[in-house]
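Appendix B, Record 12. Input sequence as logged:
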Amino acid sequence: MQPQDKDPRPDADDFRLESYRYRLPGRSIAQRPAQARDRSRLMVLDRAARATRIRTFPDLVEELPENCLVVANNSRVVPARLSGRKPSGGRIEFLLLTPLPLLEIEKTAQGRSRAVAQGLLRASKAPGPGLRLDFGPDLSVTVRERHDFGRCQVDLEWSGDLGSILERSGSMPLPPYIQRPADREDLARYQTVYARRDRSGSVAAPTAGLHFTEDIKTRLAGRGAEWVELTLYVGYGTFSPLRCPDIRGHLMHEEYVDIPEQTAAKVAQARHEGRPVLAVGTTTVRALEGAYAALGRISGFAGMTNLFITPGFEFKVVDHVLTNFHLPESSLVIMVSALAGRKNIMAAYEQALENGFRFFSYGDAMLIL
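Logged structural output:
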């Protein structure tokens, strides 16, 4: 496959949702992780060389430009999917969507903790406002407001440490296209090796980072690559389908970003020195470019972003991206198309399918140079 221009200008088809549809056999959707993190395959989409290369993930070390700055999302996925029963005895499932560090916690008269949160409730008959749902002796959920598609606002009330309760009683919120229950393997593998416990709150993994091992990080450092981190709490909206035939009509979901001053300083220094900036994953791209869009400069940032990156977007911070293969007609495949060109991405995806690449969260990786 020969990529087109490095920075192609968008045409009318680039704004049509149907242009991001591609044939995807079910067998190409990875249902389980590779045997080892770094056993994944890697497709390199080299825009400057106008070529693609099929490699394995450890080859990333040789493929990265010299002296690049690698920026990764250190958010941690919470096992925030809970199963319980309604007072009537019917089964119910609750998925906590609000990142734990963003909960505004107050104490009740009984000494328990309480906070308002957003979540997803699933039951044969949706519970109405005011209904209290118990998920074990230490955690209850009381519905405040119901919204579309199972979303709701709730009162959480718990005893002890909420993170520990979820680790003990919850399961990993695997994406809807993984058609099996979460198990013990997912507790480790649906998590990057550099995820920080004090950054717990994502309900989906920053999946491009799942391929890294400590050995690969060490080898990158040995070749002069610098590693810095930021936090974007990945929300369930990442799986929400686009419904507007013209993608410019899509209303993007919000996610919380925290870029430390020291990370921003390293990024600004790399840009000043002309060193390339590699974002590990689309969440990192969104964090960096969203913060720049909000501030007009590279700086520390803490706040929400609803940036929707579409063809024609002018990237101010990110030069290269390591990512996975994304769902058809998703905001993520549109984002990488904005960087590499829609035709290039669609052709690369077709090549990946022809060569047996595994798609989505537990699938293989793509490096866009």
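Residues 22 and 328 are 6 Å apart (CA to CA).
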